[in-house]
Amino acid sequence: MVFLRSRGSRILLAGAALVFVAGAVGAIAVYLAVVRDLPDLRDVRDYRPALSSRVFDRNGEPIAEFFSERRHLTPLEEIPQHVIQAFLASEDSSFFEHGGIDYVSILRAAWANLRAGGNVQGASTITQQMVKGLLLTPERTYVRKLREAILARRIEQHFSKQEILYLYLNQIYFGQGAYGIGEAARTYFDKPVAELGVSEAALLAGLPKAPSRYSPTAHPEAAEKRRRYVLERMLAEGFIERDRYEFAVASPPLLVEPRDFADAGPAAYFVEEVRRRLFDELGGDRVLRGGLRIETTLDSELQAAAVDAVQTGIRDLDHRQGYRGPLRQVPREQFADEIRRLADANDLVPDPDGGAAEAEAEATAEPTAPAETTEPAVVALEPGVVYEGLVTQVDTKANTARVAFAPDVAGIVFHEDIRWARRANPEQAPYKIREIATALSEGDVTHFTLRTPDDDADEVVPEGLQRVNLVQHPIVQAALFSVDVASDEVLAMVGGYDFAESQFNRVTQSRRQPGSAFKPIIYSAALMNGYTPASILFDRPVVYTDEESGFVWRPRNYKGSFYGPITMREALVRSVNNATVHLFRDVGVSRVVEYARMIGIESPLNHDLSLALGSSEVSLAELTGAYAVYASGGRRVTPKFIHRVLDRNGEVLLEDVTLDGFREEAPEGETPADAAEDVDVAAGGEATPTEEPAEPDAPAGEQILPPELAYLTTSMLKAVVFDPDGTGWRLKDLHRPVAGKTGTTNDQADAWFMGYSPDVVTGVWVGHDESRYLGWGETGSRAAAPIWVDYMRVALRNRPVRDFPVPDPIVFARIDRETGLLAGPASKGVVFEAFLPGTEPTERADAARTTAEGRRQLRMDDF
């Protein structure tokens, strides 16, 4: 121990001890600092990641998703063994041997990185990756790596390997918004995890390392290389046999876009209504991250039919207004450059040589060159896609036009397909053009779409060309709202022509003047106040003068003629304005307003006679609900659009949610059509005083009208359809009992059709977002009723044909349609009319005519 006797040695030893103690203390301090605020492992035990909330239709079919992270939890027992093995081979082959940290892999990776002079290989275990994704932030620092290692060791001590795999496979990100193996299988292959094959599993297992770099959609070559690497690792680890490996290598998986992806598609307006309501009720975070199951009332088949009917009706109206001209004109010398530009704009791939020769030939072709000289197209246009096309030839002899969409991609337009394309003029009646040159000129760049093949078409499409139609984006909007009569459930909702273009929902967020569609409310109120369908009204000219402003109002009928004495039924059938104004005055403004409130009209209503012609703006939703009262036999109807909402544990959060947001404002950036003012446009006047919105007087489902009164209203609205003079005559095509009413404002800015069968009530509105002239002859019968018929043909297709049930107190009588009295042998027109007992007429029409004629003769004798 001579060494220890030396003073210098003792000093050196003491210093070393001091350094060791200081180092130990420092290490402990660093360790304590690192572990001081480590996440609680109870967060892992209570694993509740952000889950997608899914929206389902009435038949349990998924229609949309709400999410911040698109994820659906998949139990480990539902994941095939070869899928788990693919991830083990790719990420951590010794997962079941190590305790959270693989020291051998760390040394191997350090040596590889040292030799490469950079970070080329990692050594994180599956446990570490799970910790990083679940408990830590992704920044690359030594402190974070140390925390990750500590947590990985703790996780291994408190959780089984199977639990760690479950957490890992449900937490990791796979690209394209997909979190977890369940969502990845759906996103890339549209199938459940249990159906994944070895090749598909290998592709997915290669994604977590770098989802964007190995994306099979963005970088297919890199994804394929990574897939083969995973398969090689599976073979090397003994997870698959050689023959299975070779088969998987030779079978690259086919990517399949999910059918029930997050895009709501045709149901977009309805889904947005659901989202806004649930955000209000439950909060955005719970909706986007809570994994809710949202069961709605929507019928997906009817919703698709509604969208198709609305878009078809708008396009037909747009065609009646004429062609607004090309997007631009291109000089002939620029045709070749324009065709190449169109290839990019249309996302059409030309020949490998770029099609330069064909483009040049297209640009320099003589106008009279026959279309048959065109080379066969190498890229097919897709149905339903709108393309920009350049008109390169107009053949006046053949009455056709040739259109280029890209080098080697050309189409032909026949005169027969664009006879509608007269010069746009809403003030003028539509007519058909005789020559294609009236609409199209060489150098026009405009929109076209592939024409649907027609076996009956006489025109022969030359080889190498594709038959296309001229199209233009409509400037008119429309909305449709449909409710099941028995259950009060919303079946379909279309808030506009295109949700991607405008999210403003014209069913619930817009108020427009209903015009004559408001008349049934007045006539029904009259029935409630002692009138009968046979009561005589007087259709004669009348002038009203406002004593304060001096404004003079002269209501007039649509065709300008007057009918004189007319039954109430006939006045509604013919939609006679002046007779309605007289009836409204006799019943009383206050009584009509009170009645409208009772059946569900909540919007402010004008307290003047212009209300008789629908001058007060209402929403399509509330007007449809009012008509539903008659369809349901007098029940108060508040449409339901959500059956129930369940949380991730199956607990019911909401049930039977009703659509009650009729007074909501437009979303930011949208402008409701004239929603700020209540202007008496129907009467041609100025702003009139309105009352404040009122709450409905009766809860949903309560009997608010006697069934017999609701039936009398329905009976008159059936006459609107089936009477020879009825404005709803288009509905006869359905060949079943239906009732309804057209609506047109006198400036033809809004067109409506409101109607119902015993099973379904539907309302349709057509107009511009900013109130203006809709077009020559564009009434509710012409613009809105065809949409209603097209939709209801599908809505009623699988329902039995049945008539409206007749309540017991109702009696019927044969009525002379001119006098409203009992029909006699001399009656020229007879109708079978419904009455409340004791209100039917007792006098015969021929006796009344005889008495009237006798009085006339007596007056003549006096002279």
Structure description:
With 863 residues, this protein is of the alpha+beta class. It has five domains: 2-37; 68-249, Biosynthetic peptidoglycan transglycosylase-like (Penicillin binding protein transpeptidase fold, Orthogonal Bundle); 324-471, Nucleic acid-binding proteins (OB fold (Dihydrolipoamide Acetyltransferase, E2P), Beta Barrel); 477-795, DD-peptidase/beta-lactamase superfamily (Beta-lactamase, 3-Layer(aba) Sandwich), CATH 3.40.710.10; 811-862, no CATH class. The protein is built from 25 helices and 24 strands. The chain has a five-stranded mixed sheet. A hairpin with a 3-residue loop joins strand 21 and strand 22 (760-767). Helix 18 crosses helix 21 (589-598) and helix 18 (519-528) packs across helix 23 (707-722). The relative contact order is 0.08.
